Amino acid sequence: MSALVKDRFLSDCRRELLQLHTVLMQELAEAAGKESQQGHLLVELRACEEAIKRIDIGSFGRCKICGEAIELNRLKAEPTTSCCLSCSAKQG
Question: Which end of the chain is more exposed for a tag (fewer CB within 10 A), N or C?
Answer without folding.
Answer: C
